[in-house]
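Input record (one chain):
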Amino acid sequence: MTRNLAKSDSSKICFRIVVTVAALVLVLHCGTALAVAQEQTGASVFNRTCVSCHGRNGTPSAVGKSLNAPDLGSAAVQSHTDAELHQIIANGKGNMPPFKNSLSDGQIDALIAHIRTLAEQHK
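The corresponding structure, as predicted from the sequence alone:
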């Protein structure tokens, strides 16, 4: 009987390990999926809202150049904190209008995540 209890305890431990590992894999996968979804959302918000002035890759379009829009991949823009970029997008700056009434905080955060990827094009 002691032997059967040992096997039972061993089975329970193995089951707990398998469940724990599965849960960790699920959490890591969901985190990655969330990051991908946020970037896709950020890119789509960028394409709808920002491209006309900042261009597809963050480099100002002709319209953006006439309005003195900054290159979003530049060190000057990338050096801003996320909070500073959030404030600029929400409240506007210079010729850029405020977007706090047309974009949610989540959309602005996704947009900031996308803007961070534009620095890669300047390396």
